[in-house]
Amino acid sequence: MPVRVVETSPSSSTPWPCSGGTQGSTMPQPCALLSAGQTFSGTQNVSNQQKDEAWRVNVQIQGCDLDHGYLCGTMEALNVPMADTPVVTFWEGEIVDTKNYTFFTDKWGATTEDDIRHWSQFPSFSPLQSMVENDGGKLLDLSNYQNIFMRWKEQYFVNVGTDCGLTIAGFYYVCFSCNDGSINGFYYDPNSSPFQKLELKTTSNGRSGFSFSSYELQ
């Protein structure tokens, strides 16, 4: 949720297996750290040519359905200069799994060139790049990768109005580590500062929320 502006730690370089793999599946396998109720905390760098700035950010996953490549949650931005209160948004995500979604976005104003430019910011994407450039990675086997790639699209503001001075017109390219639960992301919006980096670490001590795959309410 960057400021509306018109501009005139990184994952491992080698993917590693996730636990609990299913034989014969090429989709990312379930990771306990990416499930309903998990929480994360970190920063989003919103610097531009005029100033350096970073906001503290909290994220909670509210739902996760790996079979359909879907997850959703809330994002809370703190110490936002133009807001009197933390700004909370609801987002929905697409999990790149070669079944439901590929590395090509095909919407939200992103071209394939934009996709490659942003995915290539993640070191763990490097071994996949040549295949992704051909067809979005439709034939990739992602079942043995420690990293799960996603797109997060904020849908609406939860506790403030649209006149809050922030924009949710863009979306995040996201790379999640099954190994330690860390999240790195880059925000894409042609009308915002480019490559605003999101860096989050898992903070979960307990779980709450719901899981679509098991229809579990907590």
Task: Describe this structure in a few short sentences.
By secondary structure, this protein is mainly beta. The protein has helices at residues 112-119, 129-135; strands at residues 39-45, 54-65, 70-77, 87-95, 147-157, 171-177, 183-188, 196-202, 210-211, 216-217. It has an 8-stranded antiparallel β-barrel with strand order 1-2-3-4-5-6-7-8.
Describe the structure.
It is a single chain. The protein is mainly beta. The protein has one domain (40-202). It is 7% helix and 33% strand. The strands form two sheets. An eight-stranded antiparallel beta barrel has the order 1-2-3-4-5-6-7-8. A hairpin with a 7-residue loop joins strand 7 (183-188) and strand 8 (196-202). The two termini are 28 Å apart.
Overall average pLDDT: 83
Uncertain runs: 3-23, 208-218
How large, in whole angstroms, is the Cα Rg? 17 Å
% residues in beta strands: 25-35%
